[in-house]
Automatic annotation (TrEMBL):
Membrane protein topology class: Multi-pass membrane protein
Record EC number: 7.1.1.1
Similarity comment text for this entry: Belongs to the PNT beta subunit family.
Signal sequence coordinates: none
UniProt-recorded name of the protein: NAD(P) transhydrogenase subunit beta
Length: 474
């Protein structure tokens, strides 16, 4: 091994260390920004090193250099513009689009390598290591591409959020899976060439669509995490195809992290990943603002003034944000209310459910954007013991994740870990109506004697509460 090769491997190793440390730093909101920056620096170094290696080996022709530079520039500008312009409510669908781009790009690497080998006449002589990872790459990447686009469409409202039953969907998936096995087997044995690889791509795209359409909105946080794991795995396979160490390491890390997060998210919903992939759960957005049919018990309504006084006299308040907060873009209002309470000496914290919103960490991202103190953001295990000591639990737009029905068997949310808001001395729910959550059932919290409903859009309701608090204090 030459001195140049030694330096190259050392740089790649340093990049891998950056990826690992970056992921570690992302486990806390306090250090997540530094983790992102460190991981991005590692990837930038890996790309620069790869360009130098290609130039030294004579593979970086003028056309290749221009194409590579143009691709990096276009991608960087597109990413920066999307990141700055996207609304926080649209962040989940943007993440899904990024998953689609990652999976599709990984698949294209394998297809591009196969095309190059076919032109050189070496396709049939490819080792099994390359042909196997090529098939896996286009399969996983194709599923990720189409599945992520469908998920993004559901989140954006282009497609209905409810489960969409595909006629004979299981038989279609079975047929597509058999087609992948047959075409993949032919490719591995050196028969069919690019034609059978294209068949794998087409079948993979079909599997992604048929798999994702029946999955309802309630499962979207888990689906996004799962597709993210698919993206990482596809990237790792692409690394094996072209012999790129940085791709293998980065892809493996993303795939492993996504798989672990998917398991944690599924556990938070008390459902198996297999059951989520099977689909058919949740009702989507159609019932989000409708009345709760068959509601039992008495719903007690409160006014802005009464709720503001109750908050002003509290010594401990726990705020529980949900998707209604994101939909109303009310993160700044809820943080302003929390700060006003803190200035009055009230102990304020936020109870964050892992599947609140539309993607993993959705509520954390929203509140971080509004500069909520990281020390006040507490996950379900940390915050649940505190509800019994809270004077007021202020629920803003959260539904299924606060439903006490989860503690009883025999309903769609049975066994799902919930935030124990009903254990607080008093509960104030800011919500537009008594509409269902994604599970399609009534929230029993709304009829409990210690619960009062403040019917309002989250942004308007929180603004009014803040004004009422200031008026009472003055």
């Amino acid at each position: 091994m030459s001195g140049f090769d030694t330096v190259t491997h050392a740089v790649y190793l340093a990049c891998a260390v950056c990826f690992v440390l970056g992921l570690h730093l992302m486990t806390s909101p306090v250090t997540a920004r530094r983790g992102n920056q460190l991981s991005a620096a590692g990837m930038l170094a890996a790309i620069a090193t790869t360009v130098v290696v290609l130039a030294r080996d004579g593979q970086a022709t003028l056309l290749a250099a221009v194409t590579l530079t143009l691709g990096i520039a276009v991608g960087a500008v597109a990413g920066a513009v999307a990141a700055h312009r996207v609304k926080m409510t649209a962040m989940p669908q943007l993440v899904s689009v990024f998953n689609a781009v990652g999976g599709g790009a990984a698949a294209l690497i394998a297809v591009g390598d196969a095309v190059a080998q076919s032109h050189s006449g070496d396709l049939a002589a490819e080792p099994v290591r390359v042909t196997l990872t090529t098939v896996l790459d286009v399969l996983i990447g194709g599923v990720t591409l189409s599945g992520s686009l469908v998920a993004s469409g559901k989140l954006a409202g282009v497609l209905p959020g409810r489960p969409i039953a595909v006629p004979a969907g299981r038989w279609i998936n079975l047929a597509l899976a058999l087609a992948v096995v047959a075409a993949g087997g032919a490719y591995l044995t050196g028969n069919g060439g690019l034609a059978v690889l294209c068949l794998v791509v087409a079948a993979a795209l079909g599997i992604g669509v048929v798999m994702t359409l029946p999955i309802g909105g309630a499962d979207m946080p888990v689906v996004i995490s799962l597709l993210n794991a698919f993206t990482g795995t596809a990237v790792a396979m692409a690394g094996f195809v072209i012999g790129s160490t940085p791709l293998i390491i980065a892809g493996a890390l993303v795939g492993a992290a996504g798989a672990i997060l998917t398991k944690l998210m599924a556990d938070a919903m008390n459902r198996s990943i297999g059951a989520i992939i099977a689909g058919g759960f949740g009702t989507g957005d159609e019932n989000a603002g409708g009345p709760a049919a068959g509601a039992t018990g008495t719903v007690r309504q409160t006014t802005v003034d009464d709720a503001a006084i109750q908050l002003a006299y509290a010594s401990k308040v726990i705020i529980v944000p949900g998707y209604g907060l994101a939909a109303a873009q009310a993160q700044h209002e809820v943080v302003a209310l929390a700060q006003a309470l803190t200035e009055r000496g009230v102990d304020v914290s936020y109870g964050i459910h892992p599947v609140a919103g539309r993607m993993p960490g959705h509520m954390n991202v929203l509140l971080a954007e509004a500069n909520a103190p990281y020390t006040e953001l507490k996950d379900i295990d940390e915050i649940n013991p505190e509800f019994a000591r809270a004077d007021v639990a202020l629920v803003v737009g959260a539904n299924d994740v606060t439903n006490p029905a989860a503690r009883r068997p025999g309903n769609p949310v049975s066994g799902m870990p919930i935030l124990d808001v009903d254990h607080a001395k008093s509960v104030i729910v800011v919500k537009r109506s008594l509409g269902h959550g994604y599970a399609g059932i009534d929230n029993e919290l709304y009829t409990q004697p210690n619960t009062a409903m403040l019917f309002s859009d989250a942004k308007a309701g929180l603004t009014a509460l803040l004004a009422g608090l200031h008026a009472y204090v003055s």
